[in-house]
Amino acid sequence: MLELLFIVAVVLLVKFIFNQGYKNEYFFKDKSIKFIKPHFMVGNSGNLFTRKRTIPEFFIDAYTAYPKEKFVGMFEFRNPMVLVRDPKTIKHLAVKEFDHFVDHRTIIPSEAEPLFGKSLILLKSEAWRDMRATLSPAFTGSKMRLMFELISDYSKRMVDFVSKETQSKGIQTYEMKDFFSRTANDIIATCAFGIQVNSLKDKDNEFFLKGREMTSFLKLSIFIKFILFMAVPKLLQVLRIRLIPESVTGFFKKVITDAIDYREKNHIVRPDMIHLLMEAKKGKLSHQETERFDSEGFATVEESNIGKREPKKNLQEDDIAAQCFIFFFAGFDTVSTALSFLSYELAVNMEVQERLFQEVQETSRELGDKTLNYDTIQKMKYMDMVVSELLRMWPPVPIADRICTKELTYVDGDGLTYKFNKGDVFIMPVYAFHHDPEYFPNPSKFDPERFSEENKHNIDPGTYLPFGIGPRNCIGSRFALMEVKALMYYILLNFKIEPNEKTQIPLKLTKNPTMLSEKGIWVQLTPRSTCLM
């Protein structure tokens, strides 16, 4: 079946490209924009397709091709995209001209993945606006306070697991992407789906295996399907080929609908995402948060007026299932990626880890017998500096995009005029901005001091985009930051993160189409009681 899919993909892709001919060859010439010359069949995607360059390297290559240009043209296969190199221009397009760039580009048609199609990330235009306003109240600081206890409780169980392994087997070395994939899986299980699993102990539980299957983008079959979705989406709809097996989406949908039915019948209230979405379904959830939390973190993105307006959409069970599904899909990989890279940076930058541990230890003493809570962790300034720098150096999502929904002619006042037609795409080079020495001096150095009180005002917000920019930024930034900080708090309170012979130094990224390390991120967790302090 896999071989057949590959042959079909190649044949159809070649046919598609020949049909397209060279009509896009002069796309940017006609607009008087410098562009990276495309290659036959693959456009500029050849080095990604053949896995000769990592995703960050690929976009840095494009970013540095014409260093004096604001716009650089490039081709994803035969599809033209403009990479916007100027942070002020990105802010103008994504914020001021948001009505012209409401949507993300669609790689996966909603007809091919119905559950995806109803999710916030794929919804378009007014449907997206209504869903954003409906969901926004579920991601405010006050709602994060309610959910924080669930994360704290799980973090303690994680520490207990490692402690028992250490006692019975000695100091343990873990591959941290796998370790944190399991912890992120369990946290989302409890916070979004209302169930408890322990994937560190029960490594083959169904919830984790289904989640891993859903996010396994490194599989050749998934890679081939992506190509087909980009080249011939309508044919895939006719053949009813799906990116994610229906057995996986069906499993998660059943978990959610069963949980809703059980809670409604038994009048159960639990401070998690399902409860909040059930409240939205009843029309009881609205954006009433007026206080501003300056301590929630440098990387936190603010909600726009679109998210604060009165919601019009009454959620149905399929809508709830779709949002929980995409919450899992987005959080499973991005949070585990961030935490695994953070564990590496702390292991190889012991002075940073030691300073962060001192803050963790001081916070623990101040809490006494009290449990860590949302407000306390937001007051940890060095923790926020470390996490902010982590998201600069290793942004889990290295680019962002917007698609033009209605015609716009952009004039910068310095001689650049560019007409965006409906359907045109522009790319925001997040990773490239974060590693540009013009914006972040010595960018390859892990330096939390960039985000200190004395220095953070020097950072142009348009160059720091771990959660995107504008009204269509990441709705879950508070949740992601809360999860990363809480887990790292409990790990550092109990263990020292140390490199050993299995740790790849310096770390290198895989050339697969994702933000993963080449050889995994291996570190050992040494109990603090056995460390020579």
Structural key phrases:
about 525 residues, alpha+beta, 4-stranded mixed β-sheet, 3-stranded antiparallel β-sheet, 9 strands
Summarize it:
The chain is of the alpha+beta class and 533 residues long.
- What's the alpha carbon Rg, rounded to whole Å? 23 Å
Q: Which stretches of 5+ consecutive residues score pLDDT under 50?
A: none
The chain-level structural class is alpha+beta
In round numbers, the mean pLDDT is 86
Strand order across the largest sheet: 1-2-7-4
Number of separate strands? 9
Beta-strand proportion: 5-15%
Order of helices and strands: HHHEEHHHHEHHHHHHHHHHHEEEEHHEE
Largest sheet: 4 strands, mixed
Shape: globular
Number of helices: 20
Q: How helix-rich are the residues, as a percent range?
A: 40-55%
Termini, distance in Å? Answer: 57 Å
Explain this structure to me?
By secondary structure, this protein is α+β, with helices and mostly antiparallel strands. Helix content is about 50%, strand content about 10%. The chain contains 20 helices and nine strands. Strands 1-2-7-4 form a four-stranded mixed beta sheet. A hairpin with a 5-residue loop joins strand 5 and strand 6. Helix 9 crosses helix 12, helix 12 packs across helix 15 and helix 16 packs across helix 20. The N and C termini lie far apart (about 55 Å). The mean pLDDT is about 85.
